[in-house]
Every structure is written in C-alpha cells, then in structure tokens.
Amino acid sequence: MRDALFARIEAKTAELVELTRDLIRIPTVNPPGDAYADCAQFIGERLRRRGFDVAYPRGEGTPGDSDRYPRTNVVARRAGGRPGPCVHFNGHIDVVEVGDGWTTPPFGGEVKDGKVFGRGACDMKGGIAASIIAVEAICEEFPEFAGVLEISGTVDEESGGYGGVAHLARQGFFTRPRVDHVIIPEPLNVDRVCLGHRGVWWAEIETYGRIAHGSMPFLGDSAIRHMAAVLEKFEREFYPYLATKRTTMPVAPDGARQSTMNINSIHGGLAEGFEGWPSAVVADSCRMVIDRRYLIEESYEEVRGEIVNLLEALRRERPGFRYDLRELWTVPPTMTDRNAAVVRAVAAEIERVLSRPAEFVISPGTYDHKHIVRIAGLKECIAYGPGILDLAHQPDEYVAIEDLVASAKVMAASALALMGSGQA
Ligand SMILES: [Zn+2]
C-alpha cells in the first residue's frame, strides 16, 4: 500500500513543483501582511475542489489586522470513509521581506538545477505544497481512508503568530477531539524531526542619569556610563556563566545548545534622527533590549532572577545607579516527548523513505509550536518539512525538488499510519 502511495506522489512531482511556484508568486510579505487573503483563498479553493470543507477564520483585532491587511487564515478539513484520529498539517503563509543580494526574481519561483527559488521557497511554501500534495495523494489513493485530514495556512508566524495559529488555537481549532496530531512543515531538513524550541525572555533595561551641559559632565550623571557598567558585568561575569549552562535538549546548531543572550539594541542620550549637529548634553536615559534564550532545565523565574540580581548588585556597588527592568515577552521552552505517536510515526517514515535514521532536533528560536502546546494544550506536535533552515530569510532562498518529494512521502505515510488506516 505504501508503494502505491509513494508512486502516486512521484507521479505528482511536476504538480508539486508548480504548486510551490504558484505559492511563491503570491507575495505574502510580513510586515505588513500583503496578499494574505489571496494566498489563503488559493489554498482553500484548491482543497474545496477536492472535497474539503474550507473556512477562512480571520484574526480580527490581532496585531496588524485591518481591512487593508486582513489576517486571513485558511483551514481545510476532510473526513475519510471511516472514523479515526485527525492529522493536521499547519504551515504559515507569510514570508519575510526580500532584502538585498538576489540573483533570481524573489517572487518568480524560478526552477534551476533541481531547485525552486524564491522568497519563502524553503520557509515555508515548499513545506505547505508538500503537505497539500501528501493529503491529496491519500485522498486519491485511499478515498475511504480512516480518520480526518486537515490543512491550515496561517498568517503572521514571522511576527509571533498572534493573528494566525494563536488565534486559531483560541478558537478551538487545535483542541482535541477536533485534532489529534499536528505536523508543521517548517524547513528543518528533510531527515529531521523537530521536537520543539528553547524558551525566550525579552526585556528592556533602562538606566537613569541626570542631564547637564556636555562641557561639564561632572555636574550631571551619565546614564550611558551606568549602562556601560551593566555591559561590563555582562562581559566579565554573565556571558561566561551562560556558557556553562548546557542542555540535554538536542538543539541544532550546536552553538545554541546552551543558554544564550543577544543584546538586541541600545539607545542612549540624544534621540536619533535629528538634522544638523548634536547638542552638548549628558545622557539622562539609556535603554537596552535583551533577548535571552533559555533551556528546558531553566525556569522563567531563574532567568529573570539572574538579571535582577546583576542589576541589584550594581545598585549596591555603584553610586547613583538607578534602573528599571521592563519585561517585553516570554515563551517557555517546549519539547515534545520522543515517544509521542507523531514523533515515532514521522521518524519511522523518514528512515523508510531516506534509508537513514531520523535525527531529532530542537529549534534555537520559537515558532508556532508554542501556541499549539500552550493555548490548545495539544502535546502531539512536531515540525517536519523540506528545506534547509540556514537558507530561511536569506537571498536566493530555495528548496530542492528531491526534498519536496521525499518530505511529501514522509508526510503522507505518517498521516496514514497516525490515522490508523492500517494500509500503510
Ligand atoms: Zn517558518
């Protein structure tokens, strides 16, 4: 039975390539959220013609939603001939801005050397196309399959997913018994199962000073110098300490297999963007945004507490040191059990299709997985899809046609196995 399914998918190679190209040609750039409704309808119409029930839930009132830029999602559902679990493929339809350095048209979907090029080719219109072909192949080959197939195309993953997966999760779209297993075809490489992601804690630190004439800085108190003391503590104490915090999570790449912190931005003193010459003042405020990525072994309280302790130590040691700490957002780390049914099914099919064992990885950054786990409480969720993660958001982004086909086979056979159709 698996042979028939795989033969059918191979016969659909040209169709899979054309579908990927068609999706790339809809320029769903976020921000601002261009052409979301066009892309959602394109997917929805295609699946409606193949017997799916299609809905277009709009993330009304979510960040960025307006009549000009509606946050239009699409959810398509088709029940088989017999009852059984529901397998849901979720892909984000938004892509990031184009940027410089392209040698192919970013929204052209050019095919060259066995690859499809374009913004979103790997992240993640190739994955969406592969999942659509996978479910269509099941419907054609086994129209009386047991279970339910769902596909969603959702918005705004690149900006937090609030109008997309988070919105759908709040509406119950990812809740049992409606959905049992979720596969997100993000570009994590065709032989890897992604079990989840590290946690995130974003915060803004502001130091305060006292304004004075720049020719007599001793009459004021520089907020920038106070921030320099924070930076010095980071360099001398905090970064070496973070490097000692290793994780058992299989994060790839290896450099992210520990706690990390990026200093996102620093702004101090005179506001930017003025015309003419700067005026001579001592900075009375300096703000720094930090982006701390944390591990399953750490708690939010611990991560926050480390920064509070560091700032409190400076307050004791350094005359005039005053600060505020504002938390911007936080996402706890998440890691699906290696023994979850969806993990075992996809890993087994990877081995079968590619003749090598699946690798298990954790993403250094977060993706829509978080909303499915936290809002919908569904633990049966992984990311698996074609495309190389390093190419995401880069110029000349591409997906290999060979990987599109292999991943479609893995997705189709895994879905059949999870729905308990017994044919695979
Ligand atoms: Zn993505």
TrEMBL record:
Keyword Isomerase: no
Keywords of this entry: Cobalt, Hydrolase, Metal-binding, Zinc
Cofactor: Zn(2+); Co(2+)
Family of the protein in this entry: Belongs to the peptidase M20A family.
The protein, known as: Succinyl-diaminopimelate desuccinylase
Tagged with keyword Lyase: no
Molecular function per GO: hydrolase activity; metal ion binding
Domain Peptidase M20 dimerisation: 196-314
Matches recorded under PANTHER family: ACETYLORNITHINE DEACETYLASE, ARGE_DAPE-RELATED DEACYLASE
InterPro entries listed in its UniProt record: ArgE/DapE, Bact_exopeptidase_dim_dom, Peptidase_M20, Peptidase_M20_dimer, Peptidase_M20A
